[in-house]
Amino acid sequence: IFMQSSTMKNLFFKSLRSKQIAFTITFATLFVAVITLAIFEGNKKTVTLTVNGEQEEIRTHASTVSKLFSTNEMEVSEFDIVTPSMDTPIKNGLAIRWEQSKEVAIAVGEEEQSIWTTQRTVKDVLEEAGIEITEHDEVSPALTTKLDEKNKITVDKAYKFILVDGGEEVNYWSTLTTIGDFL
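and the corresponding structure tokens:
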């Protein structure tokens, strides 16, 4: 009986020691994982990204602006403007500005063209495209209008003509194409 009691005690303590070892290993593993995660997160740099005027803070391990965009699955087109340049090293507190371009169709009379631009108003797009507007031309939408999802601008160029009424000559500007419409 004494031997059995001693054997039972040994088995009990072995079982207890095994549980303590398992607990210690689990606790140590969990502790190392938490510390590693804290160090990993603590080493991220904070940058401010402004996209088309909207600001967002991003925490990253990226080493350059280019890597920041690729790791966040942001595609920059060749017509977009990114400041500072894509090869700029990431530093804590870096401010990045990204102006996304969009395609705009411009119809001047019968001629139509498309340009990619980062400009946001009709006037700025026409200036960038090298299209001169006079005070008599009709532009739709208006020059001060911000571009919308349609991204189409129509320009009707005015022309000068002289109307002779009872021997008196009067100069007029018009975008209309027929005399009947003008009258």
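(Above: one complete record from the training split.) The longest strand covers residues 45-51.
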